[in-house]
Amino acid sequence: MNVDVVRQRPRVEGGREDEILDATVAVVAELGYDRLTMDAVATAAKASKATLYRRWSTKADLVVDAISRAKGCPMPEDLDTGSLRGDLISMSCGDGGFTDELPMSVIAGLLTALHRDADLQKAFRERFLGPRIAVTNKVYERAVERGEIAPDVDVALLSVTLPAVIVHHAYILGVEPTDELILRVIDNVILPAARGAQVS
């Protein structure tokens, strides 16, 4: 029911909505979610708080809407390069991937709040992570159909391994994600694991 209410909220006219969302992403990247306020976004976007609240009833709604539609965090497209390796490289490198500075800086700004803000966590999982997980699942499903993944492999676990390793490097070890790191994980972890247990 709440989803229907959000969907019925009036859109901001013209290109102002995009400007507000871009400003929101910039504020999240700079201040983090906890320190972000509607005032800060309104100032950055040169808009009134009333304009923001007419469209987004909560800070969580605004932030998740912003990062879901941000230019630096494009919605991943369903892709099929013909191989699991090719698909993972296409998804993970470049615009919207792990090496894109904006998405990683934005996620860093949200991490401290995600585990304790139920509204943010729910919106983030449903509207940001959900579509991306769906694309990833299709990539692995096709890899199974092509015979690239052995029958004994835990595909659900395998599908989250690459992002888990990259996030660990970025936010725990402080190692900036690079194409080289992504390729190392794909070639030394994902693909060998996809082949399953080797029977000698």
Automatic annotation (TrEMBL):
Protein origin, superkingdom: Bacteria
The keyword Nucleotidyltransferase is assigned to this record: no
A single GO molecular function term of this UniProt record: DNA-binding transcription factor activity
Claim: Nucleus is one of the keywords in the record: no
Keyword terms: DNA-binding, Transcription, Transcription regulation
DNA-binding region range list: 37-56
Gene3D superfamilies: Homeodomain-like (1.10.10.60), Tetracycline Repressor, domain 2 (1.10.357.10)
Sequence ranges assigned to domain HTH tetR-type in this UniProt record: 14-74
Any one Pfam family match given in the protein's UniProt record, by short name: TetR_N
Record's protein name: TetR/AcrR family transcriptional regulator
Taxonomic source organism: Kribbella sindirgiensis
